[in-house]
Sequence to fold (1028 residues):
Amino acid sequence: MNKLAIMDIGSNSIKMILVDYRRDKSFRIIDELKETVRLGEGMHKNSYLKEDRIQKALQTLTLFKNLCDAVEVDEIIAVATAAVREAANQQKFLDRVYKQTGLEIRVLAGKEEAYYDYKGVVNSFDLDSGLIMDVGGGSVELVLMEDRMVKKSVSLPFGALTITEKFELYDENNRDKDIKKHLHQEFSKLEWLKNLKNIPLIGVGGTIRNIAKIWQRKNNYSLEILHYYNLNAENVNSVYKKVSKKSIEERKEIPGLSSKRADIFIGASGLVNYLMDFTGIENLIISGKGIREGLVYDFLLNDKLPVADVLDYSIKNLLHNFDLNEKHAARVNELNKNIFYQLESEFSFAFDEFPDRISRIIKTAALLHDVGTNINYYDHHEHSFYVILNADLYGLTHRELLLAAYISASHRHNKYSLHKYNLNRKSFKDIISRKGNDKELIRKSGIILEISESLDLNRKGLVQRVEVESKVDHILFKVYSSYDLRLEIEDAMEAADGFESLFGKELKFKLLDV
Amino acid sequence: MNKLAIMDIGSNSIKMILVDYRRDKSFRIIDELKETVRLGEGMHKNSYLKEDRIQKALQTLTLFKNLCDAVEVDEIIAVATAAVREAANQQKFLDRVYKQTGLEIRVLAGKEEAYYDYKGVVNSFDLDSGLIMDVGGGSVELVLMEDRMVKKSVSLPFGALTITEKFELYDENNRDKDIKKHLHQEFSKLEWLKNLKNIPLIGVGGTIRNIAKIWQRKNNYSLEILHYYNLNAENVNSVYKKVSKKSIEERKEIPGLSSKRADIFIGASGLVNYLMDFTGIENLIISGKGIREGLVYDFLLNDKLPVADVLDYSIKNLLHNFDLNEKHAARVNELNKNIFYQLESEFSFAFDEFPDRISRIIKTAALLHDVGTNINYYDHHEHSFYVILNADLYGLTHRELLLAAYISASHRHNKYSLHKYNLNRKSFKDIISRKGNDKELIRKSGIILEISESLDLNRKGLVQRVEVESKVDHILFKVYSSYDLRLEIEDAMEAADGFESLFGKELKFKLLDV
Fold:
């Protein structure tokens, strides 16, 4: 296990994340520090970093560097963005940092900043295309992603703070029309921003996450997850209109809005609102990952290509971090997939008619069915539910994530009493249904997963293949193996009552020699 | 990391747990297997293990042994209890097992069985004294523990199944008086069972856990934890009376009662009820740990003495399993404890008047404040809440555990909005109060923990000591260090608003050279 530190010197704050990583490129964030240094303060006057802000930055970077030494970090990547980039006294600042701390700061050009945003996004979403937007205080990065590659990118020289100052938005917003006009003018300078209607806007950074948080709170959204949360243009507009009507003191009381951001939030949400308005983009997807994660991926993944499958990558990450039996997980996944698709006709709906990507859901549930054992072996199916929902899994919508968590939790219920995460008890009914296809998918997939795990009871992968035959009154599982698997089958038969009540047919096994 | 397998060949089932352990004696259970072999079936007729049951046992042990090979277990400990112990064909059985699997089974004498029950219990409770009871099908183990050592022990030659058969309790119970008379007679043979009024009964095994589960469900108990759950004699009696009135089919419908145990549950609960009645013991404490854990501790801990402090041991276990920065945890704990006790006069109650052991609560909260980072760094305080409640922590009552979890979750709230685990949202109000001293303890300790963590921001232990002085309008933290800790103090000052609203006094720091 090695340690990597990423420092990110912005106009408003200096942040550091500490990351444990392994040779196999799995990693976990183990610490984060943030100091509100305001290095960009007053720069609009003369483009100079102010002495007292420099002092504060030096103090902060010294602390961060000490911490890196204390925990024995192997590699430090330190970057600076807008404030240092624009500073007339940039070199002097960098020299002083180096002299005092030994840190070599890399000043990112606007396009590089946009590139690392893209790197953070592309490796934590399964989306092929999108317009990535990172709203900062003094700049906005935009990246047009097509086929998971950068098609166009730009760093605009204005941001939430600039707009707020220009239109005096600290208190109320009486200049909405001017803002709209101004932003439309600015955006129209970029030819490639036109005709993006059919791709989503992917929002990076605290400001955009705040828009989503406000919307989630307003609607009592039942999952407290922002990554991959969706809002449409109307929702964003409604948040912008809402904050526009309020004074700064009133804004501080809005549930979900960080009081530290309340001052620049009209400008910030205005930027997002009018970009959607200008481009005609209908859908905003929130990214919890941005430039710092982009730097982590850039460091870990040698080639410049994005991760091929972000779901597989993040599942592998979790399995490594939790030190689980990956071979067993992989075998259960293979058996499960195999059996599941052979039973498609026993479901009341066709898998491709289900509104979500079933293959990703059942893969996640199967590979991570034991992930909860790290918390406590006993009731580990329930802990798997919690971990699947809360660990950083990428490339699943909230609905898909929740369905996977429920299926995983169902792999070990006693006679279907599943009381803790029972659909009737814990309510996620704004996201999944307590009945119909959702319930059927959870219950039937859960029992298939239970059977699949039983067939690898020996942890040796002794099953060669399973053929499933649907008969009128029973379903026959023909298990091919050159070993005596009577106990595996007996274990699988524990699911018989549940199976019969769900599928309306008896469960039968036949052990066949290969 | 090494692997240990414990196999336990009982009258009803054969079980195996797989345990990862380290040289430092920390461990985690990674798998459990259970086969209902019924090796003791029919033994009351001729004391012989039946051939078909032996076959089943051989098949099961072969599977278990294969699994041990597959996951490369370093050490196997296999024991047999009542059925094999009493069998006339014991040696032949053992020989066949050895020949087929290579496993050397150790047949435990009744007193040895009781001893491992004790080992499991003493190392997972902070109790000095108690009467330990393990109810099996054909035997009951009793251990009188005094000063954490075995004072007396016995294995009684009757159990839940015996009583059920003897009094024909499969359906209803019409012979309550006979049972009482019989059991009182049996118990009175043991002189040392008299006069135990003032110690608790500590119940081991699935049967006794079932009594607790039924009672928890009936009362909608909000925590789904059995270990260290308390019932009084009246509660136990009420469960016994309730099941006594019901037929077997009706019993299967009782929430909390495993349908597999429904047949012998009148006998089982009768045993517990009449032991409490006979001894006058008022309090039953449920143990989630028994013989198998006893064997793990016996293997891991070389000396025969119990763990000195089960809370410290289980916290260390968790920190190791989660691969956390233990030095940082220890330093935050020291700072936190120190500050906390200096602020006692700022609480509206004296610490020793609080109904729980405050020192254990705040130690747990402080040492485990970062434990949730293993699930996800972001919102890790909330994950710490979940992990503290669900990991195996020993030596805390449920109230203490819940208070520790709340305090830990409070170490990183943004401006005290603590919305997820807010006392007003998630309800554990049957266990802790939403107001008064409980709330005060959680909130004030939470902010003290937040300050303590800030003071080790550098992760280097640069603070030599902290002296806290309570003034009329402010509380002064005098931080002694030979280093420049301005940033640490600035970070701690993030808690200033919250501190003031909780303590009614301003928060001030002074950095002093040592």
Confidence is low (pLDDT under 50) at residues 414-425 of chain B.
